[in-house]
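Hi there,

I know you've been waiting on this one. I reran it after we fixed the sequence typo, so this is the corrected version. Both the input and the resulting structure follow.
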Amino acid sequence: MKNRIGINPNIHFGKPCITGTRIPVVDVLELLNKGISFKKIIKDYYPDIQIEDIKACIRYAIEIVETEDIHIAEKV
């Protein structure tokens, strides 16, 4: 995954993108959230990426959530 997702401060304000493209990870995740299949994403939206790139976007999101610290504050 690390070689498929990159962060460059000069591309999309440093948002993670598929390496070698200007395609933000979040854009791919939003298409998946709409129920669009991997094959349709490639065919109709991003023909320059591969299924492994889409899987890397999902893996990236999972890793972000796994490492996120959640602090729950009690209401007084």
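Quick highlight: Strands lie at 5-6, 17-18.

Best,
R. S.
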